[in-house]
Structure formats: structure tokens, C-alpha cells
Amino acid sequence: MSPSFDDAPDLSGLIELSRLDSLDLKPVILRVQTDHFLSATVRDRKTVAAFASLAGGLIPIVDAETAEIVARKLAPFPDTPPALLAALVERGGGARDAVLAQAPILTQGMIQAALAEDADLGPAIASRHDLSRATILDLIGRENPGIDRALAANPAATLQGELLARLVARARKQPDLGRTLLARHDLAHADVAPLFLLADETRREAIGHAMMATAALRPNPPAPREAGAVLTGFSARGDVAGFVAALTEMLGLPKGFLATTPDPSLRYELLTVALRAAGLHEEEAVYIYLTLNETVAQSVDRVFSLVKLFRTLPRVAARDLLAAILAWTPPERASQAGHQPYHAPDAQRPRAQTTASERPPLRTPLPSRQRQAT
Fold it and tell me: Which residues contact 54 (CB under 8 A, 6 or more apart)?
């Protein structure tokens, strides 16, 4: 049977000897006590506290080789006090790397210690397969592009709700991060709709259909009247500024919306989504592709790809897709931002401020019959 930690030999004499400048027994004491702690059959609260106190005082002052040896033993052990692992991380070097690679759970203290010692360790931590939601939230909160990309590329990292929304919001301006998120197959198409322009053809079609399902639940405003005639007129004259201004006004889009995409080569894809939302017919869109910009008009492949996108994108979803891509609230929804259904579970029921005399009777009074005198 393995010895109990309480059965470990009394090393108080060695501790006294370790204080001599000519004799350094601190590494020996730490390694021996570590072995006894790991092999003990009983590790109650008192035992763990005693070891944590002893090892916590020695870890900062032993040599780097001893610290790494102890870290490799303690890191994968589930009963190791987190404070000791944090202390080993603070040592840096091999001790830190051993803890980051083998610890079953990285606490906030360990992460803080690791990143304080070397900020470049963030992506390595974000690549672990056992990240908790709190750890992911802490890593995302650092707003480090390298950490964000590592999280997005980590298939074991669960990205949902607020965590995913924050990454997607950053990916609007970081194409590499956006394409990494789109490469994941565990994310709902509607959740990555803001990254539509960065998606491949298959993913774009799936996102369009996902947006159509939600768009069908709300009223869709009619297409602007004479939109095709107005826009093709500006395009025929080569008036790009007038064309963009007219389209912006028709849909109530934010000014300069075409410049919001970080990749200038995708601006015509964004323009196509806007043309679809404006209700243009296919021949009108083709005319614009062939007349508005000479560079686009001279590329048959470019025009063909834009027409294909126009055909595959449902108009009913185009306005919602614009809202997602631009992080924009359409005017017709801004007026309803404070609306809450009366029958919602958490809705507050309105109470009429009436006096008792103004309240209607609880039931309709029936006609009374006079009592006959006897």
C-alpha cells in the first residue's frame, strides 16, 4: 500500500540545513515532498494545505530544472492545488510550458500568470481542447487577433451566443478570422450571416436560405418604386456617386456602406445584395454590372459570378442579410425597437389608472323585478 502523506519523514532538519549558504537542499526537499504527495493514499484538506504551503514557498526559489521536473509531475495530477500550478506558470520556461500543456483545467489565475509572463502564449492556450466557457470568455475579452484566430480554429472550443457574436463582430473587419469561422461546420448559418461576403458559394446559399426563414416572420417592406429605372439611369451616365447616393436613400442604408467591407474586391458582392433588396430585376442588375464600372464590365467571369449571386439570393432575405453584414437596423425596425408583445412570458401587464367609481362592473347587471307588496 502506498504510504500516506502523513507518514512522510520529518524533514524539518533538512529545512534548517537548507538555510545554509554552503548547502542548497531546497530542490531535494521539494522533489521528495512532491513524490510523497503524489503517492499518498489519503489527501485530506489538511494534507493538501500543508503541501501547498511548503511547495509554494520553494517553487519561486528553486532552480529552473527542478521547477520543470516538479511541474511535469504536478500538472496532470487532479489534486494539485491550483495556486501551485499558477506559481509554476509564473516561473516561466519549461515549468510554465508543462503546466499549460498538461494541466486538466486552466484556472483564471494560471491564464493570468501565463499571459503576464508572455503575451504570445495566448494562442497556445486558446488551442487547448478542454477550454471552459469562462476561459473562452476571458480569452475573447483580451481582443488579441492571434487568440481570436486560435479559438476560431479550435474545433473543441464551444462558440455560442455572446462568445460567437463577439468573434463574428470582429471578423467583419478581419477577413482571416471570418474565413476561419466559416470553415467550422458546427456554427449555424444564421449566426455567421454577417460574414456572408467572405463565404464560398455553398455557404452563401445556405446563409441566404437561413435568413429567408427568419425574414418570413416579419413584414417585408415593398421594393422602392421605380428603383430600377432610377439606378440604371445613373449607371448609364456613369455617375457612380449619384448611383450610390440614390441606392443608399432608397433602402435607408448608412452612408458609405460600400466601404464597410475590409476587402475592396467584395464591394460588388455587397452591391448585389443591395440591388436584390431594392427589388431590381435580373436584366436591370446585369445592365448595371455592364455600365457602372468599366473594370467589372470587361471581366466576363466577374459579371457571371455576380449574376449567379443575384439569382441564388432570395429577395425576401436580402434586406435581413444587409442588416447582418452592415450591423445596421432598418428604419422600419428602429421604430419597433421597444415593442414587446403583450403576451410575452416576461411582459409587464399594463394597469389602467382608474378610480373605483370608473371601473366597470365585474358582471353585467340583470334587470331587477320589483317586489309586489302583500
Answer: 29, 30, 33
CA distances from 217 to 136, 171, 211, 213 (A): 33, 27, 10, 7
Q: How far apart are CA 134 and CA 139, in angstroms?
A: 9
Report how far residue 93's alpha carbon sits from residue 98's, in angstroms, rounded to the nearest whole number.
Answer: 9
Residue in this structure with the C-alpha cell 520556461, named with its chain if needed: 93
pLDDT band at 97 (very low <50, low <70, confident <90, very high): confident
Residue 260 burial (CB count, 10 A): 17
CA 261, CA 142: separation in Å to the nearest integer? Answer: 24
More confident residue, 345 or 131: 131
Lookup result for grid cell 464600372: 293
CA distances for 50 relative to 47, 54, 84, 163, angstroms: 5, 6, 12, 39
Q: Which residues contact 255 (CB under 8 A, 6 or more apart)?
A: 248
Q: Identify the pLDDT of residue 176.
A: 95
Q: What is the pLDDT of residue 366?
A: 47
* 174, 260, 372 from 267: Cα distances, Å: 15, 9, 91
Average pLDDT over residues 209-228: 84
Query: How do the domains of the chain map onto residue ranges?
Result: 5-189, 227-331
Pull the grid cell for residue 113: 500568470
Mean pLDDT throughout 203-227?
86
Q: Round to whole Å and give the CA distance between 173 and 163.
A: 17
pTM score of the predicted model: 0.72
- CA count, 13 A, side-chain hemisphere, 89: 28
| pLDDT tens per residue across span 197-211 | 999 999 999 999 999
Name the residue with cell 446559399.
Answer: 205
Closest to 315 in 3D by CA, of 369, 276, 260, 344:
276
